[in-house]
Amino acid sequence: MNPRLTRSQQKSICSQLGSVRLKLLYKASIHGFTGAAFHQLCDNQGPTMSVGYNASGYVFGGYTRQPFSQSGQYVHDDQAFLFTFKQDNVLKYPVTSAAYAVRMIANSGPYFGEALAFVNGGQAKVHSNPGNYYNFNAAEMHGNDLNLTECEVYQVEAFPEFEKPWRSMVWETEKRTKMMESIKVYSPTVSSVSQLRVLLIGPVGAGKSSFFNSINSVFRGHVTSQAIAGSSTSSLTTQFRTYSVRAGRGGKPLPIILCDTMGLEENTGAGIDIDDIVNILKGHLPDCYQLNPSVALQSEALGYRKFPQIKDKIHCVAYVIDACKVSIMPAKLEEKLEAIRRKVNIMGIPQLVLMTKVDEACPFVSQDIRNIYKSSYIKEMMQEASARLGVPLSCIVPVKNYSEELELDPNCDILLLTAIIQMLRFADNYFDELSDRFSNIQTKE
């Protein structure tokens, strides 16, 4: 059951309430436009956010701290308010008579005073009467369109923050400088490899290309965009691309190559093919190969490497996951990720998870990125990602990509550089394993 409220809308409405998150309880198109269905799922659930949608494109609703019931009585709530969205911005209409903020009607959905009621009389309609305990302009709120196309009710959950970070992190400029220098001087332990190769795998829109652009920005000293990135329902990356980051404008290439691919999609025949991922892992795919979701790479294809060397193979895999979508990851997509993970495990390639868009997922982090390891919500999302993807929590690194900024933020840089450092460490483990295998073979001979 996916929420219809967009991430931006959820972020805007949560910003009015502090450190909270929304949990979808009731969706009329699924559960029914009836008071009975609403009360069965929403009574005694604590603070809630009720949202209506109409065919005119308006998104509007109300908030109350009081739990719903079927008592027939008015309930006092001096924090209740109605709202509407103007694009992604919230317009609020506070309650004017707190004693009549909410009315508990059995045959109706959410009922705010006498001013606004959803699923009125058990129908897909809105009752609207401005001035009765709430003052608002009806045309501004819902365009005078009282027919509902959808009604949702979200539980508003407060989540406590940790007084001390649950994962240590140094937020100092000197730390940023040291990390950049350690990356520049890194050298793989296998002499035939000058640059380790990290494959970025993730759903469409998770931020794979944006991650490369962000790392490139850190070392360029300003926000830049080389890889194609943006918002789309299908992958903007259609080729297998290998990106080498340079140490500043005209500088030497860093000892790491980030490999970008077409995004994963839940539907069969859409997004990157799992067999193509295997070919990439083994080093068969050439740079700029045009990916085809319907047909995997064939050994006869132009540029196919029949006998790849260690330097051509993938030395670390990073799954890129949107923090806002961990809880609503489609089952088919989760199955695809599991199938990929099994193949990567068989090949002995180390894996980690980059959790992106942490600022969009948590208002506390949005206020200050340094709150990342004080946020109980982010920790919960990381724990859920750990369970869903089958990787230890220590292998999950939260990051914030540069997407709308024009200037660098040293604190964002530290998170991004931490992710690269972890990739280098994981790749070292891979090279050590290769050396051990080679030594064992020589010993047996």
Structure description:
This protein has a seven-stranded mixed sheet, sandwiched between helices. A six-stranded antiparallel sheet has the order 1-11-2-3-5-6, with helices on both faces. Strands 8-9-10 form a three-stranded antiparallel sheet, with no helix packed on it. The chain is of the alpha+beta class and 445 residues long. Mean pLDDT is 88; it is low at 230-235. Helix 5 packs parallel to helix 12, helix 6 (208-220) crosses helix 12 and helix 7 (274-282) packs parallel to helix 8 (331-346). It is built from twelve helices and 18 strands. The N and C termini lie far apart (59 Å).
Condensed summary:
With 445 residues, this protein is an alpha+beta fold.
Number of helices: 12
Percentage of residues in helical conformation: 25-40%
- Based on Cα principal axes, name the global outline: elongated
**Sequence stretches where pLDDT stays below 50 over 5 or more residues:** 230-235
**Beta-strand content estimate:** 15-25%
Distance between the termini: 59 Å
Strand order of the largest sheet: 15-13-14-12-16-17-18
Structural class: alpha+beta
Beta strand count: 18
Rg to the nearest angstrom? 26 Å
Q: What is the H/E order?
A: HEHHEEEEEEEEEHEHEHEEHEEHEHHHEH
What characterizes the major β-sheet? 7 strands, mixed
What value does the average pLDDT take? 88
